[in-house]
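Async update (no meeting this week)

Hi team, since we skipped the sync, here's where things stand on the single-chain job. The sequence we agreed to prioritize is pasted below, unchanged from the tracker. I ran it this morning and attached the output directly underneath so nobody has to dig for it. Comments welcome in thread, and please keep replies under the output.
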Amino acid sequence: MTTINQQCGRSFSWERVGMLYKFNSPWIRKQASVYLLFSVIAALFLLLAHNFSGQMVVYGILTTVISYMLIFSPLIFIKGGDSRMVEQMVPVSPLEKFIFYMSYLLVGMPLVCYACPLIAEAVYPYLFGSNDEFVGYADVACLNIPSEFKVINVMIPLAAMLSCLYCVLAVRTNRIVKAVIWTIGVQLVMTVAVTAYTVKEAFMLGYNAGLNGDEPMSKDEMVSTFLHSIAGDSVFFMVLVALLVVYVVVMSCLSYRALYRRNL
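Output:
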């Protein structure tokens, strides 16, 4: 019996990638529409709820929800019944499937989820001035948080998303439940590690201030001092980034292997 791998040969074809997209387009359009709608709502809230007392909190909640929507976006590729059987018969090589999945998850979905909120954040200072509380807090954070921390903010959702993709591709039964549990577990472990470090730094900052008899600081001074403290010691972040990079590479390789086995 000729396998799909043998039918596709060794050559890469964008035409076959397009064929896979056409097959998945009904599910992709539905997911992209819902995600884009939520992204627009978050952006409009940031711009229209100016001077709302809980603006930063609500906007933070909305962007967090968008982050989890992005993490669980691979669930769209879970199909059952005839759709799953037809998908397995589409003559697309494992590499072509891998490129399609990665392009959709790492390029398409982030654009859909974050383009509107990022544009809103970019135009916010021009609409409300650089002295606004939201702009001032964002500027302090961007200037003082070490680059490793910014990378971690990208790598943790990426690692969780690839964990979800691997479960979708490799698990045969109860894929949704297992993918959700595994993804939340990965996200939780990484978040706890970062949170434990920041709590330790905050405790040591307050403890040392108490020993030195420093005067009580205002909220802005406290935030700035804390961010400077984190920026002064980035070894933890460098180690965590290295581990995350290794994890992402491993999950990517395992996902490709799962695709290869499905094509045999």
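Quick observations from my side:
The chain has two domains: 11-129, 145-264.
The mean pLDDT is 77.
Reply here if anything looks off.
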